[in-house]
Design goal:
The chain has 3 helices and 5 strands, in the order ββαβββαα. With 161 residues, the protein is α+β, with helices and mostly antiparallel strands. It has a 5-stranded antiparallel sheet, with helices on both faces. A hairpin with a 5-residue loop joins strand 4 and strand 5. It is globular, with a radius of gyration of 16 Å.
Length: 161
Amino acid sequence: MVVYSFYIFDRHAECIYKKKWTPRPSSTSSKPNQYDGLPEGVPHPKTLSAEDDAKLIFGTIFSLRNMVRKLGGPDDNFETYRTGHYKLHYYETPTSLKFVMVTDTKTNNLRIVLHQIYVSLYVEYVVKNPLSPIEHPGGVGVDCEMFELGVEQFVNASLMT
């Protein structure tokens, strides 16, 4: 399994954490012959900045979540979204934090994994940290070295095997 990226959005639609491991299939390379994770014959779209990428991810989950709730009722939840090149996994906490992971298409549902990241890493290293802000105004992100190290180790140990 390949993990491309991981995002956390707060209840104000701000991206408070982002981490990329390998180029997502939608990224393009400066050299056309260089391997960038796309199969041969797939067109190379324009590269987005990190902020635009996060906004696009949030817009996608916001729209899909609202569509699922309108079509299926308030008890239905959006969990995954798959395209021909990647799969987006989504978990929303009771406090409206949104955890999003983008992986390859062969990956099973990672809702439980995202919940584990929330409970064992985010709550332990960010929420219980007295130096970490409660709100993240203006896009001030999670700045906790232990959390970043924990996410890196968790993803490498659990998912990239």
